[in-house]
Amino acid sequence: MTAPQVLGRRERNMQLKHERIFAAAAELFAERGFAAATTQEVADRAGVAAGTVFRYAASKSELLLMIYNRMFREAIAEGVGSAARPMDAVDAVQSIVMAVFDASMASPENSAAYQRELLFGPASERYRAEGLAIVAEMEDTIATRLLAAAPEMDADSARLTAASVFAVLHLGIARSSTQAHPGRDARQDLHDQVHLILAGPASSKTQAGANQQQKGNQR
Amino acid sequence: MTAPQVLGRRERNMQLKHERIFAAAAELFAERGFAAATTQEVADRAGVAAGTVFRYAASKSELLLMIYNRMFREAIAEGVGSAARPMDAVDAVQSIVMAVFDASMASPENSAAYQRELLFGPASERYRAEGLAIVAEMEDTIATRLLAAAPEMDADSARLTAASVFAVLHLGIARSSTQAHPGRDARQDLHDQVHLILAGPASSKTQAGANQQQKGNQR
DNA sequence: CCTCGATAATGAGTACGCTCATTCTTGTGG
DNA sequence: CCACAAGAATGAGCGTACTCATTATCGAGG
């Protein structure tokens, strides 16, 4: 259905191995967590030798990036989707941010590891570059949305504001795994932070107003 | 000979070893970078066995946290100090943020590693907890300063805004080591981001304008 | 079909962070 | 001064991510 099968056995096998390794890693990370899973286990489950894993991913982290880049992209798409209907720009950005955050909460520990590897890992690696490109796209989308709602704003401010929104999202995901602020509702805090960044302190009527809005009304 | 010697040889030796290990780690990380230095080298330079290092620091990361917590604290104090004279609240926060950022630029790679370990490391460790407390203090200081300038603002908004400022600083330090945005001036971007967060999009004229603004313009 | 160059796969080897059973040191009571 | 308990120091050993010389496999040309 896709391309004509000009693939020889060699390329075919490589493609299958790539898929098996990817799938094995995804399963193991989901079952036991990124930190606890070993590359040997990934190799075993994929039915390849230990060294073979590293012909398909430069590092263990790259396996995580491969897997979560997809999740990240899909969450953004979902958030953009629910922002499609006419909507206040702030709410549109919120729906993107909260979609990513909610997706992260499916496995907070692995998502935190993803954020860590994405932003602090070696830049040379392929899937990290891909992940950073997704971040850049997300920031672009947000900046564009802000500009559409406020054409008098200059482009650089919109871009920097979008970067700040991502920074807050990044730290929100990071802190959700390590219970740095145990008493707080991380989701609500993130929502309020984005609101404060986009609408400014002046526009927040009261804290109660920002804080008490219904949990379910985002999307 | 200095303090009253109530210490036995035992405690005295432990104290000296702690200092030697701390100093050896600081030197090695400065010379070769955190990632390249090994705990064996730290032990050798401190004149102790490999295992002894781990009686004084729970992990290699803890060595880094020990060292950079001090730098972080001092940078904040310096920033707070230069914000002591009467000053616009936005500028006061800027002086804190930029002091930390500038201090980080003395060794961007290690500072990025510090941010990584601080926010993503295991919470149980002693020096990480200490570092997080410094972050909390910094956010408190910023929140208090914002409230002083705008008493009508509610406390939670100030706190969340301060957290956003830290998030942007954190990511700024992270990106300064990995050249994620090569064409950009990271310092200027950080400055502008803080300005946008604190003063809101409406008040920003241009990038240059944000940089060159007068000190006296009240909010 | 056979040969042979290219390259994919292998798995023992390496480096390094960290552990822990053992050894050494210190302070104390007799 | 000696014996001994507490606990600090040691360093060989372990687990794991990653490497690389060697081996297995593929595909093209004869």
Automatic annotation (TrEMBL), chains A, B:
<dbReference type="InterPro" id="IPR009057">
    <property type="entry name" value="Homeodomain-like_sf"/>
</dbReference>
<feature type="domain" description="HTH tetR-type">
    <location>
        <begin position="15"/>
        <end position="75"/>
    </location>
</feature>
<dbReference type="InterPro" id="IPR050109">
    <property type="entry name" value="HTH-type_TetR-like_transc_reg"/>
</dbReference>
<keyword id="KW-0805">Transcription regulation</keyword>
<protein>
    <recommendedName>
        <fullName>HTH tetR-type domain-containing protein</fullName>
    </recommendedName>
</protein>
<keyword id="KW-0804">Transcription</keyword>
<feature type="compositionally biased region" description="Low complexity">
    <location>
        <begin position="205"/>
        <end position="219"/>
    </location>
</feature>
<dbReference type="Pfam" id="PF00440">
    <property type="entry name" value="TetR_N"/>
</dbReference>
<keyword id="KW-0238">DNA-binding</keyword>
<dbReference type="InterPro" id="IPR001647">
    <property type="entry name" value="HTH_TetR"/>
</dbReference>
<feature type="region of interest" description="Disordered">
    <location>
        <begin position="200"/>
        <end position="219"/>
    </location>
</feature>
<feature type="DNA-binding region" description="H-T-H motif">
    <location>
        <begin position="38"/>
        <end position="57"/>
    </location>
</feature>
